[in-house]
Here is the input.
Amino acid sequence: MIQPILKFVSEPLLEFANNQCEEHPKDGLFLYGPTESPVKGGALKFGVVGTKKGLELFSIWGTTICSYIPPYKEDVAHHSAFPGFQAAFGLEWPKTPLVEIEVSAEKVDKTIRIQNRYEAIKKTVDIFSQEIEGFLKNDSDVTPDFWFVVIPAEVFLWGRPMKGPPVSERIAGEATMSLRLARKFLNAPSLFEADNDQAELMRYDLNFHNQLKAKLLSKAVVQILREPMLAEAIGTKDENSRRMVQDPATIAWNLCTTSYYKSAGPPWRLKNIRPGVCYVGIVFKKDSTDLKPNNACCGAQLFLNSGEGLVFRGAVGPWCSKNFKEFHLPKDKAEELMRLVIVGYEKIHKEPPKEVFIHGRTHFDKEEWEGFVAGKSSSTNLVGIRIRPTDELKLYRLAKQPPIRGTYLEVHPRKAYLWTKGYIARFNTYPGFEVPNPLAINIDWGTAPLEQVVSDILALTKVNFNGCTFGDGVPVTLKFADAIGEILTAAPNLDGAPQPFKYYI
Here is the structure.
């Protein structure tokens, strides 16, 4: 019997401008600025679409982030002041956006209240997406790097599944077909085109965020903002806001970090990631509009050592196991997906990767793994790793604080429990409330040193450019798996070409 051994890996370092390193991205950006990027100096180039109120709130917020914003609590280490956009990122936040488009608040208000929720959300998405698409089509000489879409509170509240305005506020729309009849026509189209058009609405996800992202894939990078959040960020209480989720300084850090990433590239990179290594997160998502219950869409997220990522859309098919409710690819589809990943890597680096670590939430079966192996380059070492949050094991210290982040329990040369949440020396505290649970890590296929696998996974918790946090609980290869899967299935006829990760977050 193998005796479990408690070990520790040091906090991964992040690299910033002039090869300077820090553990915390806020420290590195404040002291040194972002890593070298294609954009040097100058100002961000973005467009904004919103109602009159939304544009006004965005303009005021844009003014506030140009200067110092105090921390939420002065004497708490994990609450950081925001030094101002240019001070942190080395670029100017423009006084006016490159493009500013106003949409009718009255039209948005009426559209989101349409009785048929599929019609309501689809048409609300069209209000914003058509403005962006129309501009890109007609004014190609001036192209923003990305777009802010500022939505009213009602769109956020009612633009989601199982949500909707009170029945007394709903208005009649054009779609009157029942859900049951729509499913029938999706399976066997009607002789009347009008019936098929109404049934086609069922192919769109009941989620404004996912639909808008899907509609603009390959066309525009989008950052969705809520009017109530902007109101909180500038210190005013919005009538539709229940409580403040984040303080103004934290909102500034998070939104400015993702804005920089979507315009100029990763603001930091991992220091000690080995050259020639890439990480792949496997994504599965059942399509709620697909009439075949076991059908799912498969995709892969490729993350490079620079922190940049690509998303590949794979095939749709009966990948969901009836007995175990797990997702598995047949050999030919696994091979096809791996070839897409290898080709995507080669286009960037001009050579195949030396090592590919595949991360998944469930065990890769033999047929699936044989497909991955068949699709890789002969010079590439392939390792299959299963990662899942678990509460099957608890670890306590003889101290007031929980286990240190980076602690792991090796129970076998191919299995460990890693604590990605816990006490952080940089903060001298644990920035959480409950006793942290570990990640269960299994090397299911291939060979790699367990300590290296654990260290890489901990490092991958620090490259979430959708915010500016010290580290997440799960690696980036899996953190956005659900969100990416939802976008991949949010609209029909999506382009299967690989898209940069920034289109999805």
